[in-house]
């Protein structure tokens, strides 16, 4: 598979892309810290806040294929710069929201669009364009690890902002930090060019051919579960730990520990992905997630068990991403990576929508999160089974030109 020469030196592309991924994902990862202060101050139910976050994940997923497609066609730098502006606007709007409707519009719709346009999915599309094929899984792992580093940094920083300035000013400061994406995006300018021997297809035809690939369908379906796990834990875990008698600071550091250990998990996943079958690695990750959740529920909740669970989930958190992105690029080549990974990510975000909303609904209905935890175990085992039959084989519909 061919690559193109980047507009700036490759190391600078990777560094700038990783910083963008860290800022964008770190901000998103800190939203769970706002659950208790926002619902208490605005009088929102847990389900109303969960719905705003769920819509954010859904909008992110719906917009992701289009963001990836625009990046493939018009250039990643331009797309990321616009995304940084929209993302900052959405977070700033959250600070001035006064009820469930305005919070849903700002936190849900505007922020969701901004996250999609400035996401690490678009960053990885840029990496897939300029990084040699044999190094892509590892570089995808680096980008994912950078996202995790952002979560590790932003969780305690976000909690510190909330404690020192209140949740509204904390969001204002975070919005200012998001504007750093705009100048950094210039290092990732350029777009994916057609390469000899590879099909150059319209959006819908490329999507139709990709969906005809059985292994791609399984990959997309399985990615739903990843989103369910991540979004539920990210948004509801801090509140769950407070419910169990722990402090909000333990909740913030739990999210930070997930981010810290995810750096290791993402790098290890990217390294292993270039040496072992990616589909079997993915099956193992989902199986181990189910085991980790079951073990967490078996023991009384304490700071020790919370941090131990966070460490285990951190190793498995975004380790699915370099493997999933690697399989998409292996199936179809870098030409359509932004769009077709975006379709897979839409499934991920549908799972995120269900996980966040269901967590709030179940809590309001039962006063506990137990049912959602149990469902997470079942879905983890199901996703592990779905990934086993995936075949690492390039789709010839994308390596041959149309007649």
UniProtKB/TrEMBL annotation:
SUPFAM superfamilies: MFS general substrate transporter (SSF103473). The keyword Cytoplasm does not apply. It comes from Devosia equisanguinis. GO terms for molecular function: transmembrane transporter activity. It holds the Pfam family MFS_1. It comes from the Bacteria. InterPro entries: MFS, MFS_dom, MFS_trans_sf, Proton-linked_MCT. Residues 10-395 form the Major facilitator superfamily (MFS) profile domain. The chain crosses the membrane at residues 12-36, 48-67, 79-97, 103-126, 138-158, 164-185, 218-241, 253-273, 280-301, 307-332, 339-359, 371-390. PROSITE patterns: MFS (PS50850), PROKAR_LIPOPROTEIN (PS51257). Keywords: Membrane, Transmembrane, Transmembrane helix. This is Putative MFS-type transporter YhjX.
